[in-house]
Amino acid sequence: MSDKKNSQGKHQKIWAIFSLLIVASLLLSGCGSAAQAKVYKVGILVGLEFVTPIADGFKAGMTDLGYIEGENIIYDVQTVNFDIPTYQSVLKKFVDDKVDLIVVTPTEATIEAKIIAQDTNIPVVFAFAFTEGMGIIDSVREPGGNITGVRFPGIDITVKRFEILREIAPDAKRIWMPYQRGYPIVAPQLEALAPLAKAAGVTLIDFPADSPAEIQAELAARSATDDIGMDAILFLVEPLATLPDVFTAVGKFSYDHQIPFGGVYNSIDGYSSLFGVNVDLAESGRLAAPLADKVLKGTQAGTIPASTPENFIQINFTVAQQLGLTVPEGLLKQANEIIR
Fold first, then answer.
1. pLDDT tens digits, one per residue of 70-88
2. Cα 256–chain centre separation
3. Which CATH number, 3.40.50.2000, 3.40.50.2300, 3.20.20.150, 3.40.1260.10, labels domain 155-279+313-339?
């Protein structure tokens, strides 16, 4: 009987120890889950309505990487249409809210984000930012500081826009180029275009402006003359051309005088540009997602090489026909999208 009692006692002790091990395992497992359950806060500043697909592409890319909105990541998306003081206000709010990451687009908003975040521990990932000569990064391979992102190959795109306009409208010898006065990335584009225009016997007529009203007034004045003074309109890489009021004013002028306009592809109020050369905005956002993932997992942003998207070419074949222009077959083959 004594042996039986001892045996039962041993079994009870074994079961007690086993139960304690199970409880401890569950507790440790619970602690591990809690540690993994961090919810990241990401502030996204979209500095132009035109580039809103970047934010959508970024969020989609993050979802693919396992970040589920409302579960393990929260986004604060703020859209502003080219307003520096508002950029600064939004970015300061992100800092005050202690977000884990700032995602920002385009160039001027990125510049402000770098300045505001530099005295904090908050990393910055940009998209659609013109980096050459802007002081945003040290180099593509080593951005430096606490910033990285998806650069915008602005000079290459500007040159390609000029070349495509020349291919489709070779008789256009006077090209008018409106742009935001004082915009930092315009000067390098003008410098790149100058020798190309000279070699082609083309006169570039640049028109800096501070508002859509200035563009509208200039076009109205030209319409009142016998010679409008231009044969085509080319949009540079800058924000003014993306504003609806500017685009529709240029579109109406172009349609009224039967001259091509392009560079940025858009279609508003029945007016469509002839062509556009850009990057795929949603794809630029997606390219930013793996960079953000590395940053959130602890890699210093400035050590992550910046990405560069491919050019995205759109040709409006219908507009070309309406203007009596021929789109070379080789150019059609290069196009990522042909609008008919």
1. 999 999 999 999 899 999 9
2. 32
3. 3.40.50.2300
pLDDT tens across 159-215, in order?
A: 999 999 999 999 999 999 999 999 888 999 999 999 999 999 999 999 999 999 999
Distance CA 31, CA 65 (A): 24
Query: Cβ(320)–Cβ(274) under 8 Å?
Result: yes
Please choose, from the candidates 296, 289, 175, 291, the residue with its C-alpha nearest in 3D space to the C-alpha of residue 231: 175
